[in-house]
Amino acid sequence: MLRYSRNFVFALLLAVLSAASPTWAKAPTRVVYTVSVADTAKKTYRVTAKAEGLTDPAVSFAIPAWTPGYYTLIDFQKDIANVSAVGPDGEPRAVKPLDPRTWQVATEGAKSVTIRYDLRASEPGYGFFRTYLDENNGFVNGPAALMYVVDGKTAPCAVTYRVPAGWKVASANAPTAGDPNTFTAPDYDTLADQPADLGRFARYDRTLNGVPFSVVVVGAEGADHKPFVENVYKVSEAGMRVFGSAPFPRYVYHFRFLERGGGAGLEHLNSTVIRLPEAALRGRGGLSITAHEFAHAWNVKRVRPAALGPFDYTRAVRVKDLWWSEGVTEYYAPRLLLEAGLADRAYWLEDIAAGINQLQNNPARQRVTLEEASLKAWEGGSQGFGGLSYYNKGMLVGLLLDIEMRRRTNNRVGLDHLMRHLLRESERTGRGFPENGIEAAATRLTGTDFAPFFERALRSTADLPFKETLAAAGLEMKETVRALPFLGLTWNPTRDGLEVTSLVPDGPAQKARLAAGDLLTHVGGTPVATLGGGFVRNRKPGETVPLTIRRGAQTVELNVTLGSRESRTYKVAEEPGATPLERSILAAITGAPPAPDNGGAR
Ligand SMILES: [Zn+2]
Q: Separation of 391 CA from ligand 1 center, angstroms?
């Protein structure tokens, strides 16, 4: 029997409205981009974006304020010039800037308009965040180059890279049959999150577990890439084994080798950009970064805080869980190397000990909580905040969480299970996890209350329970405390001595009445110029040291009694008397196959 009610009619009307809505939609039905190498000498691209299926009198295009994975605002608009627009007939259309990042184009009733602009490739090296161009190579990071249609980010997209003869294009977006330079994506987020290498690069392709992998190598032209590339394949296979899936249709590594400098990487949806010094073609440092970035294909690109996709490109997006997204990813890096046979347990133990050394010698751990470091990443250079790195502490919290989950469940459930559970949830819902979602999942999977663990680890500055928790994995943490002499001032070297720039409140230097601006010329009668920067290092805490100071026109003699500061060194080793359970936990967290996945049920 059917009963008609007012509400039912209303609901029926809504249904009719929403069924009809596609013809009224503001959003375009498709956005088609071209990125053309316009002038390599002037490092300029020409970009066009054609929005199709328009119905409104105006459409707005905007360039993002940040690029996913790097939590820092960037003025991409400063690289954009000569913005203009045309209708389908090629006739000019009026362009009105709405704010520094947004341009509104009048459609004049046309179903499509194309916005066009010059893009200055301002990335100084083969970097990550912007765009690069020289006579041999180009790089395009989507958010730096491609404007999105405001309120139209969900429309399907295509991009064609127009490059000089002899250049290739590599990107993890969906390739187009018969046109190697055109790629498609279901929406703007996907399109923009797959950068492109253009030019004369080396490319190595291999199918692993049925998934096509490409390793693009820019730079290091004369070197033998093969051994490194083989190791990258091993890391890739290890990642798919550890996480138990390959949630990408293809994967592209965009490597760039520079003569020197540090290594760094930026994760993308089905790809990563990794910059390394050429020396990393040998050795393990580059592979550790590779493992970290590849692990992001699961953790952050699929298992992600809810605010990290779909993205709001207009402002800083703050989340509490970057410790998970970056720190736990970092925890998995040595694990993947172990799984790949590229590292042994000693390497893993050293990596853990190095992390503990970094944290326990960092006074910021007593001022800043892990959640605060995550939330304020935008002010902390995308590393942490106030000196606390969420990579460092987050990695260690991941380790302790792994052990603690296994301790409470007789080694039945650990971090691998938690990650796989979150992965299934993200696939099921298509969304990221909510705030406190990790804590809730750990509690549910283990059937034990994880609130106190997370309270201490994330929301307090109390030291982490390393000793007790490591013991549950048959590991012994040894701490060596040394007292080092401490003067308590900072200085700038000048031609005549060391100019005091600041003093630690109530520190030995301040107690001896040194002041900012004093010029320290002699220590114990010896000119500081001949002593080098570490002139207190060879002395002992409690020792009294005569200092000669120039203060204005005066020369002042002072005695300072050196204080002491603690230096802590940590080593982590296997405990010979560990129980079988403790040994099995260690085996599990260092790469023995995980227990059969029970679907997260308990
Ligand atoms: Zn990362």
A: 8
